[in-house]
Design a protein that fits this description.
Blueprint (H helix, E strand, L loop, with lengths): L7 H10 L4 H12 L9 H37 L1
């Protein structure tokens, strides 16, 4: 996973233009530097997770349909 990249100088300048004091802008920029981007999820991470879930759901559907078919078959055989 790539690191979170932020142009801290640009952020500081924008904050200063918006009325932040130098100290406030510096504090915000320092807080942004400390952000840990390793826990952020990318689109490819989400696509992989969705694909895995689809496979799991399909497996359960097949198993439950086979089990249901077996129960119906057994019920028909039992009632004859």
């Amino acid at each position: 996973m790539s690191a979170l990249t932020i142009d801290t100088l640009a952020v500081s300048q924008i904050l200063r233009k918006r009325g932040f004091s130098e100290e406030q802008a510096t504090g915000v920029v320092e807080a942004l530097r400390e952000i840990d981007g390793s826990q952020l999820t990318t689109k490819s991470d989400l696509k992989e997770a969705v694909a895995d879930l689809k496979v799991d759901i399909l497996r359960w559907l097949v198993v439950t349909q086979l089990a249901l078919g077996g129960f119906i078959f057994a019920a028909i055989k039992f009632t004859r």
